[in-house]
Amino acid sequence: MKATEATRSVPQAHRGVAGQANGTATQPREALRLANEVRSRRAQLKRELKLGHASPAEVVSHPPAWMATATASVVLESSQRIGPVKAARILRRAGISPTRELGSLSKLERRLLVAAIGSRGRG
After folding, report:
1. Helical H runs in 1-123?
2. Separation between Cα atoms, residue 81 and residue 60, nearest integer Å
3. Partner of 66 at 20 to 30 A CA spacing, among 26, 30, 38, 55?
4. What does the DSSP 8-state code read for residue 47?
5. In this structure, which topology does domain 24-118 adopt according to CATH?
6. pLDDT tens readout for residues 26-72
7. Which of 43-64 are b and which e, b meaning 16 or more Cβ less than 10 Å from the residue's Cβ?
């Protein structure tokens, strides 16, 4: 098989010198490295939330890019004195699904969730 036949399915932007596929072995490694970095950062943030060194309201208001796919319930349940039941109550009060990702929340939903966190789901 000729090199041009082997690389036809590879977009031009991903071709290296002489039209050969670029980074075929390094792309999965880079993706794995990035995924591990995101997991490490999330774990660190969850520890900070659990210890009270980070505010769940602040994370909801201004989530880091690497928290965009984290669910609202994970952030709440990782926080001090908020378990699954209280997290569900807070999310229900704000009208947000527990599986909703932080990155997909609108400004209004963020404000409602921050307000519900401030009241800690009482009532």
Report:
1. 3-6, 26-51, 56-61, 72-77, 84-94, 107-118
2. 17
3. 26
4. H
5. Helicase, Ruva Protein; domain 3 (1.10.8)
6. 999 999 999 999 999 999 999 999 999 999 999 999 999 999 999 99
7. eebbeebeeeebebbebbbebe
